[in-house]
Amino acid sequence: MNPHLDQLHPYPFEQLRQLFSGVVANSGYSPISLGIGEPKHPTPAFIEKALMHAMAGLSSYPSTIGGEPLRAAIASWLEHRYGIPAVDPATMVLPVNGSREALFAIAQCVVDATRGKAAGGALVMSPNPFYQIYEGAAYLAGAEPYYVNSEPGRNFAPDFGSVPDAVWPRVQLLYVCSPGNPTGAVLSLEDWRQLFELSDSHGFAIAADECYSEIYVGATAPLGALEAAHQLGRSSGEHPYANLIVFSSLSKRSNVPGMRSGFVAGDPRLLKKFLLYRTYCGGAMSPPVQAASIAAWNDEHHVQENRALYREKFRLITPLLREVMDVELPDAGFYLWADVRRTGLSDLDFARRLYAEYNVTVLPGSYLAREAHGINPGRNRIRMALVAGVDEGLDAANRINEFCKSLA
Questions:
Q1: Alpha-carbon distance 223 to 253, whole Å?
Q2: Predicted TM-score of the model (pTM)
């Protein structure tokens, strides 16, 4: 067996299952889960229709690079969404079966564990708290994760300025999640300037996870990595978007998590190697999913309706929760990242008792982070995914409010 498998931590939801072991939820309440970031809004009918109408395409093998119509639709969406120059569908876009599998695979493609041995070992850097795929990808690539703690004073954006100078030469891959999971933090243009300069100096690749980019509360859409690169003059020349690739998905944007459809875009040199790698992995997207994906990327009306539902939930739910815990609106995304110390309970005890007494599931923040630089930045926090319908989400918020007041 691959010895690196022994380095993998249990996934947060397995830890949650163990935390709830032996607990009987109060049957007087219907179960509501805010624990898993799985969209619950209905899938738009036109996407389902496009999927069904393309079922005849199952009679042939799809290509790993995907069909030109899909790559063209993604390229067009990127250009309009981020105001960037023409994106070459042939060299700068690659469809993938959801961003999760591609985020894992990119580490296996770009990390050279042998090159880092002389300096103390290859590093894969990620924010802390983080999406656990980044950590698992690092270990399976033979590298060591390096965690950059979030900074509460910056609405929980990672504090890359805290990284010692001696660390950066060992970094081969940097995962960035903006908007962040679980914090909702969005990197600024100055954050990107700093990261691009460090990448230029040390040669590491940047994998920008942007699967929450289309869910935001304010009037301004979050800044994207390709957009930042363009504004900083990095979208043209001999090596456009050097060492930068972005990962996006239809799962949250279009409420189709079961379709497993996303893309990778950016540096043509990185994508050329990534395509070669994926050709051997068998990561081709089926023709029906490609057809449905084209329909989804070409339509913005359903995205606006989806965003309006999340805005309504944030408007109704956040004030209720703010009465009993420290919680603020995120920059973007559909999570609330709340501090529960006012209740007198740890994040683990809070989640366990809330489930037992009110049949509401939330995820302890300490499961989403690691002890790094003397602290676990998720400790005493909980993540609440506002994925349920408006009425169900409001019901959950009222139960949490009542639970917290009962503790007092």
A1: 16
A2: 0.96
